[in-house]
């Protein structure tokens, strides 16, 4: 059972220029007090077959984390163009947000990012040398959430025997819960 569950990730600048920083808000729920901070990282993956080319754009510590729904704003630098192979600049890359506690990753949220030129002529006939100041990025709203079981240092607070059983059998939110789709709502 996870003590921390992401409820929403909201990008403030999407689409944006490729060289602009990423700016977003993460909303999460914590069901028990934590002794240590949560660590969040933003990683840009330009070449899926080569982890050495992954760029950690930024990281931050969030804490102390009170029980309840919490949020924080995160700003990460744009990827360093010099570290991206020319053949991997245009098209699809991945953007990954990770959450860790005591050096244990408990969640990974992955997004596809499409990078292209900002006008039709350059899209149809890209210049020989990449012009990064003319590139735009668009982060897909389709995301993939991966959760990992970790050793938390706390036991969730219970509100009596019945509540403890209910908490243990509560449904885990799906990726659909994060992107605003209300798949379980019928009208």
Please give a structural write-up.
By secondary structure, the protein is mainly beta. Helices cover 9% and strands 44% of the residues. It is elongated. The two termini are 31 Å apart.
Q: What keyword list fits this structure?
A:
single chain; 187 residues; mainly beta; six-stranded antiparallel beta sheet; three-stranded antiparallel beta sheet; 9% helix; disordered C terminus
SSE layout and pairings?
Elements: E1 4-11, E2 16-17, E3 22-30, E4 38-45, E5 55-62, E6 68-76, E7 91-101, E8 104-117, H1 120-124, E9 135-147, H2 161-168, H3 175-178
Antiparallel strand pairs: 1-3, 2-9, 3-6, 4-5, 4-7, 7-8, 8-9
Main beta sheet strand tally, sense and closure: 6 strands, antiparallel
How many helix segments?
A: 3
Spans of at least 5 consecutive residues with low confidence: 159-187
Q: Which of globular, elongated, flat, extended, rod-shaped describes the shape?
A: elongated
Mean pLDDT rating: 86
Helical coverage, percent range: under 10%
Question: Which radius of gyration do the C-alpha atoms yield?
Answer: 19 Å
Global structural class:
mainly beta
Helix and strand string, N-terminal first? EEEEEEEEHEHH
- Total number of strands: 9
**Measured distance between first and last alpha carbons:** 31 Å
Strand content: 35-45%
Task: Describe the strand arrangement of the main beta sheet, using strand numbers.
Answer: 2-9-8-7-4-5
């Amino acid at each position: 059972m996870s003590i921390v569950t992401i409820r929403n990730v909201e990008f403030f600048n999407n689409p944006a220029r490729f060289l602009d920083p990423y700016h977003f808000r993460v909303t999460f729920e914590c069901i028990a007090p934590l002794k240590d901070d949560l660590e969040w990282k933003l990683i840009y993956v330009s070449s899926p077959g080569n982890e050495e080319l992954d760029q950690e754009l930024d990281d931050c510590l969030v804490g102390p984390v009170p029980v309840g729904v919490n949020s924080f704003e995160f700003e990460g630098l744009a990827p360093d163009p010099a570290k991206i192979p020319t053949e991997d600049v245009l098209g699809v890359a991945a953007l990954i947000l990770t959450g860790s506690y005591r050096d244990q990753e408990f969640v990974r949220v992955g997004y596809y990012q499409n990078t292209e030129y900002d006008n039709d002529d350059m899209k149809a006939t890209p210049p020989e040398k990449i012009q990064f100041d003319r590139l735009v990025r668009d982060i897909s709203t389709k995301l993939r959430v991966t959760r990992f079981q970790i050793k938390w240092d706390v036991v969730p607070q219970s509100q009596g025997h019945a509540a403890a059983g209910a908490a243990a059998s509560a449904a885990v939110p799906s990726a659909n819960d994060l992107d605003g789709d209300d798949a379980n709502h019928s009208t």
